[in-house]
Amino acid sequence: MTEGAESLVKLMLLSGGSGKRLWPLSNDSRSKQFLRVLPAPGGGSESMLQRLWRQVGEAGLRESAHILTGRDQAGMIAAQIGAAAPLILEPERRDTFAAILLAAAYAAGLPGAAPDETVIIMPIDPCVDGDFFRTLALLDSALAASRYPLVLVGVHPTHPSEKYGYIVIDEHAGEHTGGHACPLRTVSRFVEKPSAGEAARLIGEGALWNCGVFAGRLSFYTGLLAKRGLPADYAGLLRRYAGLPKISFDYEVAERLPSLGVLPYAGRWKDLGTWNTLTEEMRETVSGPGRVSADSIGTHIVNELDIPVNVLGVPGLIVAASPDGILVADKEASPRIKEMLDEDAPPMYAERQWGWQRVLERGGSAEDRRATVSRIAVHAGCTLPLRCEAQCEYVWVVTSGSGEAVLENRVHPLGPGDALRLPSGTPHSLRTHGGIRLVETAFPL
């Protein structure tokens, strides 16, 4: 176990958002932390979620960790890191202020919870190494040795980035020792995503990147609930959740505190929220079918389609293709993709605990009677959950594997080439031992 890890009573990992800057692979159904594009130990690929959960285990913090996420992501998390991962389910997305209050209410209800326990909040998708978790292990002693109700972690910048928020240190307050020779500093103010010139000036003054890590006693977080007249129990807060403001914890709490501390961190940290930063961490220049010519220096292809993508003589591109669309962009310009997206477009691909579904052709309303055609894969040993829809009729055609459809309490064996009609209003599910793939056509009624 990492030194000091035993004092980290609760580690709350925030898994939310959609990561639209990584479109078309990332969408409302599959956020950026689920993309399996990072090199995994021993070969293969892993997602940001899988990598950080592995690192949490390597740091000896797994037993103290919980993941706070939306109900729509619960199945995908279970599919990637196992059903045993402890989840705190957010009924709807309401930004980090509401999410952190919900995590605090949950922590307060755990057996043996004490007001003086340290609760550390952090996002689940940063690119870090083991030194980062050793820094987290200092936060408990930093709180104990200081007067601050909240301590942040600030990263020493490596370049004047316009994508990050900055923590400006109060140079007049001096340095505190928060145990283990921990150089704890006082926060003067925050600057959110400055221009490149302003970022360079801030770095010259010793400012740090804000990496979204907060540490406070459990009593501090529950005190926020009491101050706002909110229930301190998890079930009670769930009932009031829809009325909480959609605002970040930084704006609503951290920036309003009269004093708070920051623990500088000089190790590796990167936010992989854009294609230009994510491709820096990828082992191969081509993922999926395709090729990049030798003179296309710095170009990456990430292709989830079944057709090849070839790039000739064009350097510095990201070419990303998925069922949701195709992106061809200069890597530096790729974050601007958010300006071009249709926010109402439903996702064409979704991963679930039982497998995945890829929409091949999306139909329209019941009036035009166009069908929706999808490819569905149910993993070995899994079951497609029971469903019953009165306004839709389905037809399944098995393309590979085998399984058993349960239709009106009758079992129908299925294998390659078999077809099955599922009338509207009929309860049905699908189970498989070795895995099965099929094409589903859904007819609106």
The major beta sheet can be summarized as:
6 strands, antiparallel
Rg from C-alpha positions?
24 Å
CATH topology of the largest domain: Spore Coat Polysaccharide Biosynthesis Protein SpsA, Chain A
Q: What is the CATH domain class of the largest domain?
A: Alpha Beta
Quick rundown:
It comes from Paenibacillus spiritus. The protein is α+β, with helices and mostly antiparallel strands and 445 residues long.
How would you characterize this protein structure?
This is Cupin domain-containing protein. Residues 12-284 form the Nucleotidyl transferase domain. Pfam families: NTP_transferase (PF00483). By secondary structure, the chain is α+β, with helices and mostly antiparallel strands. It has three domains: 5-271, Alpha-Beta Complex (Spore Coat Polysaccharide Biosynthesis Protein SpsA, Chain A); 275-340, no CATH class; 354-444, Jelly Rolls (Sandwich). It is built from ten helices and 30 strands. It has helices at residues 48-58, 71-81, 95-108, 130-136, 139-144, 196-204, 218-227, 234-240, 249-252, 275-278, and strands at 10-15, 38-39, 45-46, 65-70, 87-90, 118-123, 126-128, 150-155, 165-169, 175-177, 183-192, 208-217, 261-265, 269-271, 286-287, 290-292, 300-303, 309-311, 317-322, 325-330, 349-352, 355-361, 372-378, 383-387, 392-401, 403-407, 410-414, 419-422, 428-431, 436-444. The radius of gyration is 24 Å and the shape is globular. It starts with 9 loop residues before the first strand and ends with a strand. Residues 1-8 have low confidence and may be disordered.
